[in-house]
């Protein structure tokens, strides 16, 4: 068994993600060794219980053979997180997919991507806005990423296709279960000028638990996420949460206060997402576009002596955290001292609040939670 085949096999064991895989690789060295290991040996690895160990040790090579034959039949390419053509943005998130099934083509230019997501039961305002923003952003060089769901996602992909530019669809099912079924034609159109991808084995059904996994990939591929319309419990809000965790920008289109499908976007704006009314509101957040089409590399900075988050902060988060860790400081002072845009400062402060590192005080003042200890 090759290393690629071993990684595909391990990805077919549903409960193994890249975080558990790293622990297994640290212990066994090679993915091939993991599949050969006895159940008791597997259970010695942290966070690998009896149930997962049994799934690994009982994996059948016949299942791998069927998967590879099906991939060939469906004209799919399978890449792993170790491959050079694996999307760089996605490689930088905490839990990148082990493998990606790809129909179409992924290109380096897709590093410059914006996700557009929203409600499946969108209004005409939402649908037309999604299509318009997709067309305008793609004409400015962005690849449009979405989830190929009904509603906003579909119109975002269509907007990019109308502009004749690239778009990437991320599925919450396998390629033998394209969902929703009515978007099979759309999927074919996308592969001609972009890619349809999934981390799920080919016969995976569109089960509810698959879509949060799909959402983290949508945000992970992108530099920022634009939420067009979202109801109170919309999956688009989950994508926005993942974007914040991954250090991405979050943008929201405001809507009527009495519209159910605008509740989520209006709430995001109240929480610090950037309100947008035109494409330039998004473009101005990416200062590197003035000189290059390649986004700067994400370099996490270690934060010591704090056990309530994952130990890593982005460079912007580190700068703002150090400012706030002394006396309380106002939003205006932070903007002045950092020379960052208000939108970036808002988003960064929001991420630090989600990580329970800082708190907001009355009058747009911010202070470190550590000062309470």
N- to C-terminal distance = 54 Å
User: What do the pLDDT scores average to?
Assistant: 87
- Runs with pLDDT <50, length 5+? 290-311
Lateral arrangement of strands in the main beta sheet:
1-2-6-5-4-3-7-8-9
Percentage of residues in DSSP E strands: 5-15%
Index terms:
single chain; 373 residues; alpha/beta; DNA polymerase, domain 1; Rossmann fold; Arc Repressor Mutant, subunit A; 3 domains; 9-stranded mixed beta sheet; 3-stranded antiparallel beta sheet; 17 helices; 14 strands; globular
Structure at a glance:
With 373 residues, the chain is α/β, with parallel strands linked by helices. It has helices at residues 3-11, 18-28, 31-36, 39-42, 50-57, 61-73, 88-91, 124-139, 152-162, 184-192, 210-220, 235-245, 263-271, 279-283, 315-324, 331-338, 342-354, and strands at 77-80, 99-104, 113-117, 143-146, 167-170, 194-198, 224-227, 249-252, 274-275, 301-302, 312-313, 329-330, 358-361, 365-368.
What does this 3D model show about the protein?
There is one protein chain. This protein has 373 residues and is α/β, with parallel strands linked by helices. The protein folds into 3 domains: 3-72, Orthogonal Bundle (DNA polymerase, domain 1); 91-96 and 101-290, Rossmann fold (3-Layer(aba) Sandwich); 301-372, Winged helix-like DNA-binding domain superfamily/Winged helix DNA-binding domain (Arc Repressor Mutant, subunit A, Orthogonal Bundle). Helices cover 42% and strands 14% of the residues. The protein contains 17 helices and 14 strands. The chain has helices spanning 3-11, 18-28, 31-36, 39-42, 50-57, 61-73, 88-91, 124-139, 152-162, 184-192, 210-220, 235-245, 263-271, 279-283, 315-324, 331-338, 342-354, and strands at 77-80, 99-104, 113-117, 143-146, 167-170, 194-198, 224-227, 249-252, 274-275, 301-302, 312-313, 329-330, 358-361, 365-368. Helix 8 packs parallel to helix 9, helix 11 packs across helix 12 and helix 15 crosses helix 17. The radius of gyration is 21 Å and the shape is globular. Residues 290-311 have low confidence and may be disordered.
């Amino acid at each position: 068994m090759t290393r690629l085949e071993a990684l595909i096999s391990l990805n077919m064991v549903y409960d193994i993600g890249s975080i558990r895989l790293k622990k297994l690789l640290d212990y066994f060295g090679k993915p091939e060794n993991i599949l050969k290991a006895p159940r008791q040996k597997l259970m010695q690895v942290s966070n690998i219980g009896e149930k997962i160990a049994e799934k690994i040790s009982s994996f059948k090579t016949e299942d791998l053979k069927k998967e590879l034959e099906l991939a060939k039949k469906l004209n799919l390419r399978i890449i792993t997180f170790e491959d050079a053509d694996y999307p760089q943005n996605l490689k930088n998130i905490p839990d990148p997919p082990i493998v990606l099934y790809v129909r179409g083509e992924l290109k380096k230019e897709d590093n410059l991507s914006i996700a557009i997501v929203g409600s499946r039961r969108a209004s005409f305002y939402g649908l037309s806005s999604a299509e318009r923003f997709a067309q305008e952003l793609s004409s400015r060089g962005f690849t449009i990423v979405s989830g190929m769901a009904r509603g906003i996602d579909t119109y975002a992909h269509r907007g990019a296709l109308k502009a004749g530019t690239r778009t990437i669809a991320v599925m919450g099912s396998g390629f033998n279960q394209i969902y929703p079924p009515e978007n099979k034609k759309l999927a074919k159109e996308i592969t001609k000028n972009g890619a349809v991808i999934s981390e799920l084995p080919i016969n995976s059904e569109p089960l509810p638990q698959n879509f949060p996994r799909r959402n983290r990939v949508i945000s992970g591929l992108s530099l920022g996420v634009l939420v067009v319309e979202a109801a109170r419990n919309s999956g688009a809000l989950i994508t926005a949460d993942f974007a914040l965790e991954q250090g991405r920008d979050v943008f929201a289109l405001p809507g009527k206060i009495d519209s159910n499908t605008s509740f989520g976007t209006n709430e995001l704006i109240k929480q610090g997402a950037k309100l947008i009314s035109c494409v330039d509101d998004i473009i101005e957040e990416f200062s590197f576009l003035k000189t290059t089409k390649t986004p700067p590399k994400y370099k996490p900075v270690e934060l010591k002596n704090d056990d309530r988050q994952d130990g890593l902060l982005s460079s912007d988060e580190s700068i703002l955290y150090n400012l706030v860790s002394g006396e309380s400081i106002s939003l205006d002072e932070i903007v002045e001292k950092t020379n960052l845009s208000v939108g970036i400062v808002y988003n960064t402060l929001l991420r630090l609040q989600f990580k329970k590192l800082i708190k907001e005080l009355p009058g747009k003042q911010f202070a470190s939670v550590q000062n309470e200890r």
